[in-house]
Amino acid sequence: MAGMVVCIIGALYALAFTSSDIPFIVSEALNSIPKESEFYQCIYDVIGWHKQYPTDWKQTWLEVKKKWARDIGCPHGIFHPFNIDAKVNAAYVVMGLLYGEGDFTKTLELSTRTRKDADCNPSSAAGILGTIVGYNNIPAYWKMGLREAEDIDFKYTTISLNDVYEI
Questions:
Q1: Contact, 4 vs 90, CB < 8 A?
Q2: Between the CA of residue 108 and those of 85, 128, 129, what are the distances in Å?
Q3: CB under 8 Å to 87, separation ≥6 — which residues?
Q4: What are the boundaries of each domain within the chain?
Q5: Which of 105, 92, 106 is closest to 50 using CA atoms?
């Protein structure tokens, strides 16, 4: 399942370099997932619910929870191993992109408010949207403090953020 997340997130990024049409990017990225998989069906459902409830992200969130979430609750994770449901996380990234409508803050808020993996999901949504809009069009608020860190090499590497930008 985690491999499918990598696949769809990679496809979302790749398509973000060539299109700014978020519904197109999402539906095309879905083609990178095997149609017979639960993962595909989950994302396909999110796209359908977005069409059905285009202004009500909470309804789509409820539909995802009802049909796809198998939440075992955080207290169980303290004492027992458990896995994060990758398809639901990807669904929340897609929800953030679709309902965020190209607005950076709205996209981050929605992908965070869906809960679950509330650091990785908004990071993925923001990275994809940032690829669509370009660095210079990311609101300054979301880049505060970044300039000071851009020349610092990542730990155990000789590569900084500025190097990554060039690559």
A1: yes
A2: 20, 11, 10
A3: 1, 4, 5, 38, 39, 42, 43, 68
A4: 2-133, 140-167
A5: 92
Per-residue pLDDT of the chain (167 residues; tens, 9 = 90+): 667 788 999 999 999 999 999 999 999 999 999 999 999 999 999 999 999 999 999 999 999 999 998 755 555 555 555 556 789 999 999 999 999 999 999 999 999 998 766 778 999 999 999 999 999 999 999 999 988 999 999 999 999 999 998 99
Map residue 153 onto helix, strand or coil. strand
Nearest to 139 by CA among 89, 110, 103, 98: 103
Query: 10-46: string of b/e by CB count within 10 Å (b at 16+)?
Result: ebbbebbeeeeebeebbebbbebbeeeeebbebbebb
The two tokens of residue 55 are: 């202004």
The vertex-122 CA angle with 119 and 123, nearest 5°, equals 75
Type of residue numbered 103: D
Helix (H) or strand (E) holding 138: none
Q: Which residues on neighbouring strands pair with residue 51, listed in sequence order?
A: none
Q: How far apart are the first and last CA of the chain?
A: 29
